[in-house]
Amino acid sequence: MAVVYYEHDADLSVLKGKKIAVMGYGSQGHAQAQNLKDSGLDVIVGLRPNSQSRRAAEEAGLQVTTVAEAAAAADIIQILLPDETQARVYREEIAPHLKAGKVLMFSHGFNIHFNQIVPPPDVDVVMVAPKGPGHLVRRMYVEGQGVPALLAVYQDASGRAKEIGLAYAKGIGATRAGVIETTFKEETETDLFGEQAVLCGGATALVKAGFEILVEAGYQPEIAYFECLNELKLIVDLMYEGGIKYMRYSISDTAEYGDVTRGPRIIDDHVRANMKAILKEIQDGVFAKEWILENQAGRPSFNALRKKEREHLIEQVGDSLREMMPWLKK
Ligand code: NDP
Ligand code: MG
Ligand code: MG
């Protein structure tokens, strides 16, 4: 089982007298920068010159500079830019200022694990990755709570990388909830697998297949939308609150019997073999290479797939049905 760290395992004073640069002020950046500041730490925010996020950061009382200036001034550099832009920004604006003894931090391992960023050997490389969206990381902190996070050390030049990572995790409130030790490899590979096989890829493909099969069999698309997409939220909310057992306790016995007898026929050995093949493409770097090249080429097939997906009947039916749901935000 995992090693978990809490408040008493982390010492905030490790970061006293150190300057922390948070690069980016999006979902994670705004939450981590504000939490660190409210923990009494010295934080600056690095943004591009015409950044849309600048105003919000300044309104929160944070000092904003360019990424290069922040990298030069800081002892600890947390990169919270979109993963696809990190390598370029690192190369052009951060690497020239990475003096020996500095700490380079991430909230996701992709660029380090797949060698898109190769830091010099004399800096610490640490990950603190909250297991929740930024707005929750901020809200929990303000309420005196925290969101769990993962901690990983990739490179320990100072011999104190873990201590620094734990102090950072405390600064954002994560040790109030619990910080789980992992590696860049484990975090990156499981994150990609989860989103591809289960959360995003698996779930949307399952929803669309169910919808298409009902529509092809002559059922109305509106009814198929409710049964295959809309009600998924109810089921997921129950699983999130109390696990699969709580969801099954809440649904009818008919639904539960159909679940336990039919579910394994949907996710059969053939599907499991496909999932294993997808895991292997992640582990051997085939997926990462494909995605990096796709970005370098200007995303031609990604853009085409995006367009095609948006034209699916389920999206058109959903648009008009959601008009009937006043509780949904537009
Ligand atoms: P966002 O897309 O929400 O924010 C990105 C920020 O980077 C924005 O402030 C944007 O500002 C800025 N930015 C974009 N391009 C550049 C550039 N070229 N130069 C300088 N600044 C730029 O990112 P997230 O917070 O979602 O993700 C950040 C990291 O956190 C990623 O590694 C991600 O994997 C990780 N993570 C994200 C989680 C989440 O909940 N979203 C959860 C856990 C980890 P602007 O465009 O205004 O300049
Ligand atoms: Mg993830
Ligand atoms: Mg991910």
UniProtKB/TrEMBL annotation:
<feature type="binding site">
    <location>
        <position position="191"/>
    </location>
    <ligand>
        <name>Mg(2+) 2</name>
    </ligand>
</feature>
<feature type="binding site">
    <location>
        <position position="134"/>
    </location>
    <ligand>
        <name>NADP(+)</name>
    </ligand>
</feature>
<feature type="binding site">
    <location>
        <position position="252"/>
    </location>
    <ligand>
        <name>substrate</name>
    </ligand>
</feature>
<dbReference type="GO" id="GO:0050661">
    <property type="term" value="F:NADP binding"/>
</dbReference>
<keyword id="KW-0479">Metal-binding</keyword>
<dbReference type="InterPro" id="IPR008927">
    <property type="entry name" value="6-PGluconate_DH-like_C_sf"/>
</dbReference>
<keyword id="KW-0560">Oxidoreductase</keyword>
<comment type="pathway">
    <text>Amino-acid biosynthesis; L-valine biosynthesis; L-valine from pyruvate: step 2/4.</text>
</comment>
<feature type="active site">
    <location>
        <position position="108"/>
    </location>
</feature>
<keyword id="KW-0521">NADP</keyword>
<dbReference type="GO" id="GO:0016853">
    <property type="term" value="F:isomerase activity"/>
</dbReference>
<feature type="domain" description="KARI N-terminal Rossmann">
    <location>
        <begin position="1"/>
        <end position="182"/>
    </location>
</feature>
<feature type="binding site">
    <location>
        <position position="191"/>
    </location>
    <ligand>
        <name>Mg(2+) 1</name>
    </ligand>
</feature>
<dbReference type="GO" id="GO:0009099">
    <property type="term" value="P:L-valine biosynthetic process"/>
</dbReference>
<comment type="function">
    <text>Involved in the biosynthesis of branched-chain amino acids (BCAA). Catalyzes an alkyl-migration followed by a ketol-acid reduction of (S)-2-acetolactate (S2AL) to yield (R)-2,3-dihydroxy-isovalerate. In the isomerase reaction, S2AL is rearranged via a Mg-dependent methyl migration to produce 3-hydroxy-3-methyl-2-ketobutyrate (HMKB). In the reductase reaction, this 2-ketoacid undergoes a metal-dependent reduction by NADPH to yield (R)-2,3-dihydroxy-isovalerate.</text>
</comment>
<keyword id="KW-0460">Magnesium</keyword>
<dbReference type="InterPro" id="IPR014359">
    <property type="entry name" value="KARI_prok"/>
</dbReference>
<comment type="similarity">
    <text>Belongs to the ketol-acid reductoisomerase family.</text>
</comment>
<feature type="binding site">
    <location>
        <position position="195"/>
    </location>
    <ligand>
        <name>Mg(2+) 1</name>
    </ligand>
</feature>
<keyword id="KW-0413">Isomerase</keyword>
<feature type="binding site">
    <location>
        <position position="51"/>
    </location>
    <ligand>
        <name>NADP(+)</name>
    </ligand>
</feature>
<dbReference type="InterPro" id="IPR013116">
    <property type="entry name" value="KARI_N"/>
</dbReference>
<protein>
    <recommendedName>
        <fullName>Ketol-acid reductoisomerase (NADP(+))</fullName>
        <ecNumber>1.1.1.86</ecNumber>
    </recommendedName>
</protein>
<keyword id="KW-0100">Branched-chain amino acid biosynthesis</keyword>
<dbReference type="GO" id="GO:0009097">
    <property type="term" value="P:isoleucine biosynthetic process"/>
</dbReference>
<dbReference type="Pfam" id="PF07991">
    <property type="entry name" value="KARI_N"/>
</dbReference>
<keyword id="KW-0028">Amino-acid biosynthesis</keyword>
<comment type="pathway">
    <text>Amino-acid biosynthesis; L-isoleucine biosynthesis; L-isoleucine from 2-oxobutanoate: step 2/4.</text>
</comment>
<feature type="binding site">
    <location>
        <position position="48"/>
    </location>
    <ligand>
        <name>NADP(+)</name>
    </ligand>
</feature>
<feature type="binding site">
    <location>
        <position position="53"/>
    </location>
    <ligand>
        <name>NADP(+)</name>
    </ligand>
</feature>
<feature type="domain" description="KARI C-terminal knotted">
    <location>
        <begin position="183"/>
        <end position="328"/>
    </location>
</feature>
<dbReference type="InterPro" id="IPR013023">
    <property type="entry name" value="KARI"/>
</dbReference>
<feature type="binding site">
    <location>
        <position position="227"/>
    </location>
    <ligand>
        <name>Mg(2+) 2</name>
    </ligand>
</feature>
<dbReference type="InterPro" id="IPR000506">
    <property type="entry name" value="KARI_C"/>
</dbReference>
<dbReference type="GO" id="GO:0000287">
    <property type="term" value="F:magnesium ion binding"/>
</dbReference>
<feature type="binding site">
    <location>
        <begin position="25"/>
        <end position="28"/>
    </location>
    <ligand>
        <name>NADP(+)</name>
    </ligand>
</feature>
<dbReference type="GO" id="GO:0005829">
    <property type="term" value="C:cytosol"/>
</dbReference>
<dbReference type="InterPro" id="IPR036291">
    <property type="entry name" value="NAD(P)-bd_dom_sf"/>
</dbReference>
<feature type="binding site">
    <location>
        <position position="231"/>
    </location>
    <ligand>
        <name>Mg(2+) 2</name>
    </ligand>
</feature>
<dbReference type="GO" id="GO:0004455">
    <property type="term" value="F:ketol-acid reductoisomerase activity"/>
</dbReference>
<dbReference type="Pfam" id="PF01450">
    <property type="entry name" value="KARI_C"/>
</dbReference>
